[in-house]
Each structure stands twice: as structure tokens, then as C-alpha cells.
């Protein structure tokens, strides 16, 4: 039981997605208050929904291969945000969480645009070493390779939306919920319920409300 | 609390769907052993996935308007099965359950074809009045109107797959699970977990495993 508390749960998210924001907030409460371990990982909705990628598990179009400034605004924004997130992670795990939360909140709580200005402001708010950040971003091959590793793992798993959590025991599911949860009791209740669904003897594959 | 035990939960299903079969088996255990009340209702996957119905809530192509013997084999089979199900319901609630279970089991447990022969065999196994059944089916305007009512209610709700349960309090969700559950303990555990998800304070909208 101790092992499962320390092995990380992978949390796939996209900065574009308001449900991913709530998922990262949930994980942040759980890691701080319950000492659960989560690993922040990137999944791209732009890539997942790209018309050249009909087979989710075998994409031919990859976001990390796109040039800066190419493609649609959401494509550019998501690539910039992911590369900055990978750069933040090079400054440590806490830096990655601080930057990720700051940028998700700027976009989804405070309704800012996901653009270079918002990304830099989030980096400042997160207390990143900004000089080092800019140097890393200016020569981004390492960042793109780290992003590629996340995108490849997500594709292999068949991730289709965010947030998707992958438990240490391999059980995984997309978890979409509408309420922002920042209290420990609420976070624990949701996390336990989610685990019960994944581990139910009934083999639950989907619970989805009609909209 | 007594009221919610007696007000029925609507159970939308399609004879074509193996997950709907498991959902009807689940409901049958719960109604027999827990005295929960379920109402069998028809949702058509052929209609829901029809290319002329891009807007799930406002279909233009309706299964109940199709002629007997028209369309694809699965369209013909599902219309025949639904009309027979509606005819069985005219012989009483227990007749409807017996027929529905017999036909779902014939198709999904015993891997029979969903065709006129299997439908008649299920009617016999369910103990229906077969003479009355044939008379009802021969003049099927009433059956088609009853099917239309189910299809309209499903469309208004946005049902997209089966089984979908609609609780008396209005909470509703598609529930897909892989294990056949015929024991009371297992059925109760799954049903309580499903209810916890629907009533969670987190506003859970979707839990879905990647495939």
C-alpha cells in the first residue's frame, strides 16, 4: 500500500482545456494534502482532433514537429504553452506545478488569452528563473523531445481527452467534472469515487451523462 | 425515500447492443431482489448514428417511420425487435421483461441472429400469447406510435448510447460495463456506485477509459 502512495499517477492535460484545469487543481490538492504523487504530462487536443490523425493510437501529425508560428492560433498557443511547461520542468518539479497552475488559472479562471504574454506572466508568477527560461526556449530541441515523449505515451494509451489519469496499477480514465475543487475533503471524496469506479468488479468502462 | 424507490428509473436500451443486454440484466436483478422500479424504453442506435441525424436532439430520420423490410439488415432487425417488444408490453409488464430478456440473451448470450425467427422464439420462451402477438404485429400502428414516444423522449434527453438510465430525480447517464452481473450483491454495489457518481458534489460528467 505504501508503494502505491509513492508511485506517481500520470495526469495528462492540455492548457487549452477547462476540465484539465480542474483536474490539475484536484491533483494539486491531493499531492499537497494527501501526499499522493502525480506526474504532469502533456496531451494535445489539437493533435488528437487533427484530421490527419483518424487513428488515435497512431498519429501521423504531431504537435511537437510543428514550427513556431505555424498553424492555427490554438495550435500555436498550445505548442508554446507545452514548450514553456517542459522548460519549467527543467527547473524542478515544484516549478512545473507552479507554472502549470499559474497558466491554467490565467487562462480558465481569469479568462486570459493563451498567448506569449500570458505564458511569460505565468512564468513570473510561478517564480521561475526567467533568464534561464528564455535561454531554454530559444534552443528548444530538448523541450520538443520531452513533449514528444508525453505525446507518444498518450497516443499509445489511447488518451482522447483531458484530464486523463493513469494510476500506478495501469487503470486509466478520462475524468470530466464541472466543479472546481480546492478543499481536501472534496478532493479526497472525488478521488476515492474515481478509484472505486476504475476498480469496480463490474468492469465499468464508461459513465457519461447525455448533454 | 419511499417515493424514490417506487418511481421508475427509465432504462433506454437497444436489442442490438451487448452493453444494453448487461444493463437490462442488472435492472432485472435490482427489480426482483431490491424492489427497485425500472421502465423499459427503446433507443435506436441505427437512428442515433444515422447520417441524416447530425443533431442528436433533433433527428429527421426516425426508425419508427421506416417500412418493414426497408433499409439495412440491422435497421430491419432493430425495428422488428422494437415492435415485438412494444407488442409484448401490451401483454403486461412481466411479459415485456420476459420477452426483452429472452431476446437479448438469444442475441448476446447465445449469439443468435437478431431476426424474425429469433424474435418469435423469444416470444415463445417468454410465454407470450403468440396468437395475440401476431395479431398486434399485423396491424402495428399502435406499436409504432409507442416506439415513437420512446424515441422522442430519448432524443429530447440527448441519449447517445445504451444502456442509459434516467433516475426519478432526473440524473441520467450512459453506463457501459463489461461484466455480466446476475447476483444481488454485485448488482447493488454497481447501482450504488453509479448513483454516487451521478450525485457527487464534484459534478462528474464523464468517466471513460481510453480504448
Task: Tell me about this structure.
The structure is a homodimer of 211-residue chains. Helices cover 53% and strands 11% of the residues of chain A. In chain A, 44% of the residues are buried. The first copy, chain A, is α+β, with helices and mostly antiparallel strands and 211 residues long. In chain A, α5 (93-109) packs across α6 (116-125). In chain A, strands 2-1-3-4 form a 4-stranded mixed beta sheet, sandwiched between helices. The first copy, chain A, has helices spanning 2-6, 18-33, 45-48, 73-89, 93-109, 116-125, 130-138, 141-157, 184-199; strands spanning 9-13, 38-42, 164-166, 172-177, 204-208. Chain A has a single domain, classed as Glutaredoxin (3-Layer(aba) Sandwich). The termini of chain A are far apart. The longest helix of chain A is centred in the middle third of the chain and has 17 residues, at 73-89. Chain A is built from 9 helices and 5 strands; from the N terminus they run αβαβααααααββαβ. In chain A, α2 (18-33) links the parallel β1 (9-13) and β2 (38-42). Chains A and B meet through β4, α9 and β5 of A and β4, α9 and β5 of B.
Provide a brief overview of the structure.
The structure is a homodimer of 211-residue chains. Chain A is built from 9 helices and 5 strands.
